[in-house]
Design brief:
Layout lengths: L1 E10 L1 H18 L5 E7 L3 H10 L4 E9 L12 E4 L9 E9 L3 H11 L5 E9 L12 E5 L5 E2 L15 E9 L4
Helix pairs in contact: 1-2
Bound molecules: inosinic acid and magnesium ion (MG).
């Protein structure tokens, strides 16, 4: 018996990029006349962050942080660990945390509390995808790309066991038993 992974398109590339442009315009308007630091949460947010940053018409700085809450599983472990911290201070700065997806919200609850203790001027949260029905922790999302149902998705940065990040669209992953294999 073999497990077969298959992917069907949920959000095509054109819709993703059109929505990213709208989000960038909103962010540009909200921070007009100010500087903004984008914090890309590795690795899932890399694709979203670069597309978003290119479309925000403000002086932008970028920094990167890596936290782990998922292993190679599709369920949250509930544990969050900093794997790579920011390179620079965020004190007194306008900070926008850029996430790929908010699921239980546990990762962000931990992260936002930690970043807030570093005394940024403003701390806002932007996510490409949100699964609101999965929420456990109470996190306020300022900018949401798409609300999606409780299905496991990959692509545009999101992975399953580190695979599929480079797909240009968001796809549903389904894993089925394949008995046809010899
Ligand atoms: P949370 O702490 O449960 O909100 O988990 C957030 C993190 O879990 C995201 O940054 C992703 O890395 C991962 N994650 C949650 N749902 C999915 C999914 O459908 N596909 C891929 N990764 C996911
Ligand atoms: Mg992940």
């Amino acid at each position: 018996m073999v497990l077969r992974e298959s992917i069907s398109v949920m959000i095509p590339e054109e819709r993703l990029l059109a929505r990213v442009r709208e989000m960038a315009e909103q962010i540009t308007a909200d921070f007009a006349g100010e500087e903004l630091k984008l914090i890309c949460i590795l690795k899932g947010s890399v694709f979203f962050t670069t597309e978003l940053a290119k479309r925000i018409d403000l002086p932008i700085k970028l920094d990167f942080m890596s936290v782990s809450s998922y292993g190679d599983e599709t369920e949250s472990s509930g544990r969050v660990r900093i794997v790579k911290d920011l390179d620079e201070s965020i004190r007194g700065q306008n900070v926008l945390v850029v996430e790929d997806i908010v699921d239980s919200g546990r990762t962000l609850e931990f992260l936002l509390e930690m970043l807030n203790s570093r005394q940024p001027e403003k701390l806002r949260l932007c996510t490409l995808l949100d699964k609101p029905t999965r929420r456990v922790a109470d996190v306020k999302v300022d900018y949401t790309g798409f609300e999606i149902p409780d299905e496991f998705v990959v692509g545009f940065g999101l992975d399953y066991a580190q695979k599929y990040r480079a797909l240009p669209y968001i796809g549903r992953l389904s894993i089925t038993k394949d008995d046809t294999e010899a």
